[in-house]
Design goal:
Layout (H helix, E strand, L loop, with lengths): L8 H9 L9 H6 L22 H14 L13 H7 L3 H4 L1 E13 L4 E12 L3 E7 L5 E7 L2 E2 L1 E5 L2 E10 L4 E10 L9 E6 L5 E6 L21 E9 L3 E2 L4 E7 L4 E8 L11 E3 L2 E8 L5 E8 L4 H7 L2 H13 L9 E5 L4 E2 L5 E3 L23 H8 L8 E2 L6 H19 L1 H9 L24 H17 L2 H15 L3 E2 L1 H12 L4 H9 L5 E6 L5 E7 L9 E5 L2 E5 L6 E4 L8 E2 L7 E4 L1
Parallel strand pairs: 1-11, 17-18, 18-20, 21-22, 23-29
Antiparallel strand pairs: 1-2, 2-8, 3-7, 4-5, 4-8, 6-7, 9-10, 10-15, 11-14, 12-15, 13-14, 16-17, 19-20, 23-24, 24-27, 25-26, 25-28
Helix pairs in contact: 7-8, 7-9, 8-9, 9-10, 9-11
The protein binds zinc ion.
The site of zinc ion (ZN) has 5 residues, from helix 9.
Length: 599
C-alpha cells in the first residue's frame, strides 16, 4: 500500500456512533472525496430513504436500489459515486478484452507542470465488439486516439473513456491503439497522485503515487485491478540534467537534442496500473547484487538525492536481509529480470513494483516512531520491510478488486511479523503482533463491496495479519504451516485473485472447513468471542463461540500457558473438566485473535 496515517481513531468512533446518517470519516470516505465531482452525491443509504420525486431524487433512489443487493455486508459504507461505479465495475467493455502491453511514452515539463504524449495500448479481444472502456480523468485532454492511422471516436463519462471502432474487432485477435493525451494532472489523494515539487536543495522533484486515486489521474489506461498486461515500456522525457526512475530495467537514455533527455524503462512482467511510477529528480545512484536461490543474481539499485547518499548507504543495508527473509518463506524475489530498487520520494512510501518508493527519513520505525509501541519496530525500517513485502503480496499476487485489498495489506502486515520472526524469533514476532491489536477498530467488515471502487478500512492491515496468525494456530503444526505458506504463494504468484480463491485453497490444502473462520474475520465486524461459563465449584467450565457465522467452529488453546489444552468450541455449549479455577483459566489470545468472556 499506500500509507495509513497515525490517525485519531477516537474521533472516528464518535462520528460513527453519532449515527448512520453521517458519511463515515473512514479511509473509505476520505478516499471517495478524492474522486472527481459527480452528479450522484456520496451519501449513506439511510439518508435517501424518504421519497423524493425530483429526477435527481429518482436517480438517487434507483442507485440505492441497485446497491442494496451488492452491499449487504457493509451497510454503513458511503455510497459510491457515478465515478466509482464506472471505475469499479468490470463492465462489458472491459470484460470483452484482455490487456497485453502498454508503452507509456510521455514528456514531462516541470515549468508548466504539464504531461503530454501517448500510451500505446495493445489488447486481445475476448469476444467480437466495437467498443472498449479505458480511463482518463476528465481534467486531462484527449488529443487523439488512433488505430493505425485511423482516428477513433470516443465518449467520455466521469473518468471513463469509451473508445469506438468503425469496424468489428474480432475475438482472439490483438489490436493496438495509440492514445494521445496532455494536461496538468490535478493533485489529489493522500500522496497527491502526481506532484510537482522541489527537493530541499531546490531541484525539480516530480513523483507519482496513485493507488487510491487510480493511475488514470495521470495517464490513460484500463484502470482496474483484474486485468494486467504481460509487459510494459515506460519512456519519459525530462529536461536535461534530471533523471526519471520508473519501474523495470533501465534500458538507457537518449538526448533528444531539444533540451530533453528520454529515459527508457522496460517491465518484463504484468504490473498493476497504480504501481506504474515516475520519479523525476536530481537522483544519484548506488547499487549492489545478491545471490538468488535459483543461482541468478538480483540487481539492487538505489536512487536518492545527493544530500542523502551517506544516510541511504547505511539505512538501505537492510534491503538484503529483507529479501533474504521473504525468500526464505515464499521463494525467490518475484521480479528478478526487473531488479529491486528503492527510490527516494517526498512521501512515506509505496510498493511501486520493482521500484519501491521510500520516504521514511532514513530512520527505523515508521517516520522515526516505534509505531506498534512494543519495542520491536524500532529495530527495522518499517517502509523497507512493509512496502517491499508487497512485491510478493500486492504486486505478484494481486486482488482483482480493491474490495479484497486485504490480500495485499493483511498479508503484507503478516510478512512484517515473519520478518521479525526470521530475525529475532517467534516470541518477538508475537510481541510485535500484540502491538497490532490496539490498532484494530472492528466496526466494519474487512472485505468491502465489489465493483464499486470501494476501499476497505484499515482493519485490513492489522486484523488481516492477526487472522493469518490465528490460522497458523488452527493448523497447529509449524512445519506444515511453513510448507503451506510457501505453496500458497507459489500457487498464486503472478495471478489476480479474490478472497474466495484464498479460502478455497486453504480449505483444500488443510482438509479443514475454514470458510466460517475466514468469513467471520473478513465479512463481519466483530471477532469471535469465546464464552466461558464457570460453575460455583471448580472442576468444570462450559464454552462456546459467540460469532456471526452460525457454523463457526475453531479450535483454541485454553487452560494455563505451561499446559495448554486444545478444545474445539462451536456455537453450541460444550463442557470440559478442568482443575484450573476461573481466575487462572487462560485463553491463548496471543496465538488466536479472539475475545474472551468469562462468567
Ligand atoms: Zn501496504
Amino acid at each position: 500500500m499506500r500509507f495509513f496515517g497515525l490517525r485519531n481513531y477516537a474521533s472516528r468512533l464518535l462520528v460513527v456512533l453519532a449515527g448512520a446518517a453521517l458519511v463515515l470519516p473512514s479511509v473509505c470516505a476520505q478516499q471517495s472525496t478524492t474522486a472527481p465531482a459527480s452528479p450522484t452525491p456520496v451519501a449513506p443509504a439511510t439518508a435517501t430513504a424518504q421519497t423524493d420525486t425530483t429526477p435527481e431524487g429518482a436517480a438517487k433512489q434507483a442507485l440505492v436500489k441497485k446497491l442494496e443487493h451488492v452491499r449487504p455486508i457493509d451497510a454503513v459504507a458511503p455510497l459510491p459515486s457515478q465515478y466509482d461505479l464506472l471505475r469499479g465495475a468490470y463492465g462489458p467493455f472491459r470484460a470483452n478484452n484482455h490487456l497485453v502491453y502498454y508503452h507509456l511514452d510521455i514528456r514531462v515539463d516541470p515549468e508548466k507542470q504539464w504531461v503530454s504524449g501517448k500510451n500505446t495500448i495493445r489488447f486481445k479481444m475476448l469476444k467480437d465488439g466495437t467498443r472498449i472502456q479505458l480511463d482518463l480523468r476528465d481534467t486531462l485532454a484527449i488529443d487523439k486516439i488512433l488505430l493505425g492511422d485511423k482516428t477513433l471516436k470516443y465518449e467520455r463519462e466521469n473518468g471513463a473513456v469509451f473508445v469506438d471502432f468503425p469496424e468489428t474487432l474480432h475475438e482472439g485477435r490483438t489490436y493496438s491503439i495509440d492514445f494521445y493525451y496532455s494536461g496538468h494532472p490535478e493533485e489529489t489523494g493522500r500522496f497527491g497522485g502526481m506532484t510537482f515539487k522541489k527537493d530541499p536543495s531546490g531541484h525539480v522533484w516530480i513523483n507519482t503515487a496513485c493507488e487510491e486515486t487510480g493511475a488514470s489521474m495521470w495517464w490513460p489506461d484500463k484502470d482496474q485491478w483484474r486485468d494486467e498486461g504481460e509487459s510494459m515500456d515506460i519512456s519519459v522525457a525530462v529536461p536535461n540534467g534530471l533523471m526519471d526512475v520508473s519501474n523495470g530495467k533501465l534500458m538507457g537514455h537518449t538526448d533528444l537534442g531539444d533540451g530533453y533527455t528520454r529515459w527508457d524503462w522496460h517491465v518484463s512482467y504484468g504490473i498493476n496500473n497504480y504501481d506504474v511510477s515516475l520519479n523525476i529528480g536530481n537522483y544519484v545512484h548506488f547499487g549492489e547484487e545478491m545471490d538468488e536461490p535459483s543461482g541468478g543474481k538480483l540487481a539492487m539499485d538505489y536512487y536518492v538525492l545527493p544530500e542523502d547518499l551517506d544516510k541511504a548507504k547505511v539505512q538501505f543495508a537492510q534491503a538484503k536481509g529483507m529479501i533474504e527473509a521473504y525468500q526464505h518463506y515464499f521463494g525467490e524475489y518475484p521480479f528478478i529480470k526487473d531488479g529491486y530498487k528503492l527510490v527516494e520520494a517526498p512521501y512515506s512510501g509505496m510498493e511501486h513494483q520493482s521500484a519501491v518508493t521510500y520516504g521514511n527519513q532514513f530512520k527505523n520505525g515508521y517516520l522515526g516512531v516505534d509505531w506498534t509501541h512494543v519495542g520491536i519496530n524500532s529495530r527495522f525500517d518499517f517502509i523497507i520491510i512493509h512496502e517491499s513485502g508487497h512485491e510478493w503480496f500486492g504486486n505478484s499476487i494481486t486482488a482483482q478488486d480493491s474490495s479484497d485489498m486485504w490480500i495485499h495489506e493483511g498479508w503484507t502486515t503478516y510478512l512484517e511479523t515473519l520478518y521479525v520472526e526470521y530475525r529475532w524469533g517467534h516470541d518477538d514476532a508475537l510481541k510485535y503482533m500484540g502491538g497490532l491489536k490496539p490498532k484494530v477498530i472492528n466496526l466494519r467488515p474487512i472485505v468491502a463491496e465489489r465493483g464499486v471502487n470501494a476501499q476497505p478500512t484499515e482493519d485490513q492491515y492489522f486484523k488481516g495479519a492477526l487472522m493469518i496468525n490465528t490460522l497458523r494456530s488452527v493448523v497447529n503444526d509449524d512445519a506444515k504451516w511453513w510448507a503451506l505458506l510457501h505453496e500458497f504463494y507459489q500457487h498464486f504468484k503472478y495471478q489476480n485473485i479474490m478472497t474466495e480463491d484464498v479460502v478455497a485453497w486453504w480449505n483444500q490444502h488443510t482438509g479443514l472447513n475454514l470458510t466460517p473462520i475466514f468469513n467471520q474475520y473478513l465479512r463481519h465486524a466483530p471477532i469471535p468471542r469465546l464464552e466461558l461459563l464457570f460453575g460455583e465449584k471448580p472442576g468444570m467450565v462450559m464454552y462456546k463461540w459467540d460469532a456471526d457465522e452460525d457454523d463457526f467452529a475453531m479450535p483454541v488453546k485454553v487452560g494455563t500457558a505451561d499446559h495448554w489444552e486444545i478444545v474445539h468450541p462451536t456455537t453450541k455449549w460444550q463442557w470440559m473438566q478442568t482443575a484450573v479455577g476461573k481466575d487462572d483459566f487462560k485463553v491463548a489470545t496471543d496465538l488466536y485473535y479472539v475475545d474472551v468472556n468469562k462468567q
